[in-house]
Design brief:
Chain A has helices at 37-77, 84-91, 95-120, 123-134, 150-153, 174-187, 197-209, 229-235, 248-260, 301-311, 332-338, 340-344, 349-353, 358-364; strands spanning 140-141, 217-221, 240-245, 266-270, 284-290, 312-322, 372-378, 403-410. By secondary structure, chain A is of the alpha/beta class. The mean pLDDT of chain B is 94. The chains are: A alpha/beta, B mainly alpha.
C-alpha cells in the first residue's frame, strides 16, 4: 500500500491560484447564522461564478462590441453612438452580451436564494438572538409610522427579495442577515472579512486627508446594516455615531451585529434622510454616505444635501462614496456597461444619479465651491487572505469593483 | 414550528419586472442549468472534504483513489450503473425513437373514439 504513496515532492500546480479565498475566512460575528458545509460550498461556487463572469466572459463583451456591435451600428446609421443608451440597446442584440447578462442575472438570483435559504431556515433563532441583543437598548430607535420612500418601495434593490424593509415576522432580521452573508459571493471576497472594505477605506482616507479632525458626532446616512460605519466608529472610538436607515430590520440587525463585535458607540435610527428634523442644526462634525445616493431619487437628493448642510457644524466635513460619475471623458461603452445594474439588477436610479454634476448639487445645497473635495478610495482588506481591489487589474467589473470615488465638502 | 417556510420563501421573486436577454425558454433552462452546476460544485466540494478527512485520519490516501483500478466485477458493476444512469437521463430520446416505429393515436383522439356511441 505504501508503495502507492509518492515520496516525491508534490507536482507544481498547473497555474498559480488567484481566485477568491474559501468562504470560511468570512468573519463570524455573534449574529452570524449557522452555515452547513453545502451552504458554504454554494457561496464558494457563487463567488467563483461572479469572478468568472467578470474576468473571463465580460472582456468578451468589449471584444464583441469592438468587432461587430459598433461596426454594425456605424454601417447602418452612418455615424457613431450618440449616447450610452444607444450603446446599450445595440449590445442587447449581441449574443455574447445576452449570454453574459443572462448568466449575471441568474447568478444574482441564485445568490439570493442560497442566502435566503440559510437565514429563513433558522429565522426564529436569528430573530430571537437579535431581540435579546437589542431589547430595551436605547441605541435602537425605530419609527413604525415612517412612510417608505418611493425609491425603496418601488423595487427590490439588487434583486434582494423584500429589500431593506420587509419583515416576514415580528422583529425580523433575516433580510439583512442574508445581505450580510452573501456580499462575499457577490464581490468574490473583495470587501474583506466583515464586508467592511469600504468603511475601512473611508476611515483611512479621513485620517489621511484630515489628520486633525477629531469628530465628536458622526452621522452615516443610508447606513443599511452598518457594515461600513463600524470601521469608522472604531477609528473614532470617542465619537458618538448615528446611523440612519429607512429599514427597521437593517437597524435591528445592525445594532445586534455591532454589539457582538464590541462596537458600542453607534445608535441605529430609523429615518428618511431627506427629512432629519429630529436632529439639531449644526450637531455633527462629520456626515457621510457609502454607496447610498444611487439608491435615492432626484426629488430626495437636494433635500439630502440640504439636510447634511444644515446638520453640519462649521468646519465639519461631509462626503459621499460612490462609483464614478458619467463624465464626457468616460467612454460610452463603459457608461453603458456601468448602467447594467441600473436596468438589469434593480438599481433604477443608478443610471440617473451617475449622470448629474454632483458638485453643482452640493453648491446648490449651500456648500462653497472652493470647499468641495474629490478623491478615490479602494477597499482596504487583509491582503494575506483577500483579493485587493487596488491591485486587481484583471477585472473591471463595471460598477461592482471595490474601488470608489469620493465627493465631499468642508462647511 | 416556525411560521416562515424557507422552501416557499427562499426562492421568492424580487419586486420589479424581470428582464430576459435570451429566448425566454432558453433563459429559463440556463437558470436551471446554473443551479445544477452549483449543486455539482457543492457535491464535489463535499467529496473533496471527505477525501481529505479520510486521508488525515489515516483511512486512505488520495493517491490510492487516483491509482484505484477496479476488478473486472467492480468495473462491470460500475459500467452497469452508468448505463442505467444514461438510460434515465435520455429517456425522452429513447421514447422518441420508439415512436418512430409506430403510428399511434393521441389520448385525446382515443377519448373521442371511446365517446362514440
Amino acid at each position: 500500500m505504501s508503495s502507492l504513496v509518492s515520496d516525491k515532492p508534490k507536482a507544481e500546480p498547473a497555474r498559480a491560484y488567484d481566485g477568491p479565498p474559501d468562504y470560511r475566512v468570512v468573519g463570524q460575528h455573534g449574529m452570524y447564522p449557522q452555515l452547513s458545509h453545502d451552504e458554504i460550498s454554494r457561496f464558494n461556487f457563487l463567488a467563483h461564478m461572479n469572478r468568472h463572469l467578470s474576468t473571463q466572459i465580460m472582456p468578451g463583451v468589449k471584444e464583441a462590441f469592438d468587432a461587430r456591435v459598433e461596426p454594425k451600428f456605424v454601417a447602418k446609421h452612418g455615424r457613431g453612438f450618440k449616447d450610452r443608451h444607444e450603446v446599450r440597446k445595440a449590445l442587447l442584440k449581441d449574443s455574447l452580451f445576452q449570454w453574459w447578462s443572462a448568466l449575471r442575472r441568474a447568478t444574482m438570483e441564485t445568490r439570493q436564494q442560497a442566502g435566503r435559504w440559510v437565514t429563513l431556515r433558522q429565522a426564529d433563532q436569528l430573530n430571537a438572538k437579535a431581540k435579546a441583543l437589542t431589547e430595551n437598548d436605547q441605541r435602537l430607535k425605530l419609527n413604525p409610522e415612517l412612510p417608505l420612500p418611493r425609491y425603496v418601495e418601488a423595487i427590490d434593490h439588487h434583486c434582494m427579495p423584500g429589500s431593506y424593509h420587509t419583515e416576514l415576522a415580528e422583529g425580523d432580521v433575516t433580510g439583512p442577515c442574508n445581505y450580510d452573508i452573501g456580499i462575499f459571493a457577490t464581490t468574490g471576497g473583495m470587501l474583506g472579512r466583515y464586508n467592511d472594505g469600504g468603511g475601512q477605506a473611508i476611515a483611512a482616507w479621513v485620517k489621511e486627508t484630515l489628520p486633525d479632525l477629531k469628530p465628536k458626532r458622526i452621522l452615516d446616512i443610508g447606513a443599511g446594516l452598518g457594515h461600513n460605519v463600524l470601521p469608522i466608529a472604531q477609528a473614532f472610538p470617542d465619537a458618538e455615531v448615528v446611523a440612519i436607515d429607512v429599514g427597521a430590520p437593517m437597524l435591528r440587525y445592525g445594532l445586534a451585529r455591532a454589539k457582538t463585535m464590541g462596537v458600542d458607540n453607534i445608535s441605529f435610527v430609523q429615518g428618511d434622510v431627506s427629512d432629519l428634523s429630529d436632529l439639531a442644526d449644526e450637531s455633527f462634525d462629520m456626515i457621510h454616505s457609502c454607496m447610498f445616493l444611487h439608491e435615492t431619487s432626484y426629488a430626495s437628493m437636494p433635500k439630502i444635501f440640504a439636510e447634511t448642510h444644515r446638520l453640519l457644524k462649521p468646519g465639519g466635513i461631509v462626503f459621499h462614496v460612490e462609483q464614478p460619475q458619467y463624465t464626457p471623458e468616460m467612454p460610452l461603452f463603459e457608461q453603458a456597461m456601468r448602467d447594467w445594474d441600473a436596468f438589469y439588477n434593480n438599481e433604477p436610479f443608478w443610471t440617473k444619479m451617475h449622470e448629474v454634476d454632483l458638485d453643482s448639487w452640493m453648491v446648490s445645497a449651500g456648500f462653497a465651491r472652493d470647499k468641495l473635495m474629490h478623491s478615490g478610495v479602494a477597499a482596504v482588506v487583509d491582503p494575506d487572505v483577500f483579493p485587493q481591489a487596488a491591485q486587481d487589474t484583471k477585472q473591471e467589473d463595471y460598477g461592482r469593483k471595490a474601488a470608489w470615488h469620493v465627493v465631499g465638502a468642508v462647511k | 414550528m416556525s411560521k416562515i417556510d424557507p422552501l416557499a420563501l427562499a426562492g421568492a421573486k424580487s419586486k420589479g419586472k424581470r428582464p430576459y436577454f435570451l429566448e425566454t425558454d432558453v433563459e429559463r433552462l440556463t437558470n436551471i442549468v446554473l443551479v445544477l452546476a452549483q449543486e455539482l460544485a457543492v457535491v464535489r466540494e463535499r467529496t473533496d472534504t471527505m477525501e481529505r478527512l479520510l486521508e488525515q485520519s489515516g483511512v486512505l490516501t488520495r493517491q490510492e483513489i487516483e491509482t484505484f483500478t477496479p476488478t473486472k466485477q467492480q468495473a462491470d458493476e460500475r459500467g452497469a450503473w452508468t448505463q442505467e444512469y444514461l438510460a434515465r437521463v435520455f429517456r425522452v430520446l429513447q421514447q422518441e425513437r420508439e415512436a418512430l416505429q409506430t403510428q399511434e393515436a393521441s389520448s385525446e383522439e382515443v377519448a373521442d373514439e371511446l365517446a362514440k356511441v
